[in-house]
Amino acid sequence: MIKLAPSILSADLAHLALALEQCEEGGADLVHFDVMDGHFVPNLTFGIPVLAALRKRTQLPLDVHLMVEAPDRLLGSYLDAGADRVAVHWEVTPHLDSTLRRIREGGARAGVAVNPATPVEYLQDVLAHLDFVVMMSVNPGFSGQSFLPHVLDKTRRLREMIGAQGAEVEIEMDGGLGRGTIRSAVEAGVETCVAGSAVFATPDPVLAMTSLRRLASGEIE
Predict the structure, then answer these.
(1) How many Cβ atoms sit within 10 Å of the Cβ of residue 97?
(2) Per-residue pLDDT at 218
(3) Average pLDDT by consecutive 10-residue portion of the chain (221 residues)?
(4) How far is CA 7 from CA 68, 153, 166, in A?
(5) pLDDT of residue 43
(6) Which pLDDT belongs to residue 220?
(7) Under a CB-based contact definition with an 8 Å cutoff, are residues 220 and 202 in contact?
(8) pLDDT at 78
């Protein structure tokens, strides 16, 4: 079963409560929440108070993607604010196994994100500590970027690694997923699809979610 995770970074930031309502009406499985610090990536987005406010307005799981330097410094606060899933970046997390353990001990599902140029083979020894991997199919930092096709091969290699270990690790993909790319991502092994502009830059986000799910599942072309 494919999961759809609309990214509210692409929503009208003056009406985030409406965006949550649209996610619920459109049958979203998760709400993707991008945290950028202006250091690891050249942009600033949401912080802890915004996450806490959204937590009060929806029962949907909040999928928090920490694109920040030194994620351990902020981890406890995001868990306390209501994160259901937290992904940290391999590139900035030196003691990854310990960080993942903290996430799980905090009651959330633990994930790691990898940039487009980061080999998935680096995750070989932490798969047992993971609940999900976020495959970045754009370079992180801005919404609305074009999909990078070479990430599909990386995804297939990751799926083979997971299968070889008999691990239960979900593959999520973030970046450039839309009408022309979402089915290819699913065919490569993606189970959770993050969609930003493909949902919220359309005239009808609810309809867009329905269409993307049908495209992902192969119901329509």
Answers:
(1) 14
(2) 85
(3) 94 96 98 93 92 97 96 95 98 95 97 97 95 95 82 98 96 96 97 96 97 90 73
(4) 17, 24, 30
(5) 87
(6) 80
(7) no
(8) 97
Residues designated catalytic: 34, 174
Distance (Å, rounded) from C-alpha 84 to C-alpha 103? 10
DSSP states along the chain: --EEEEBGGGS-GGGHHHHHHHHHHTT-S-EEEEEEBSSSSS-B---HHHHHHHHTT--SPEEEEEE-SSTHHHHHHHHHHT-SEEEEEGGG-TTHHHHHHHHHHTTSEEEEEE-TTS-GGGGGGGGGG-SEEEEESS-TT-SSPPP-TTHHHHHHHHHHHHHHHT---EEEEESS-STTTHHHHHHHT--EEEESHHHHTSS-HHHHHHHHHHHHHTS--
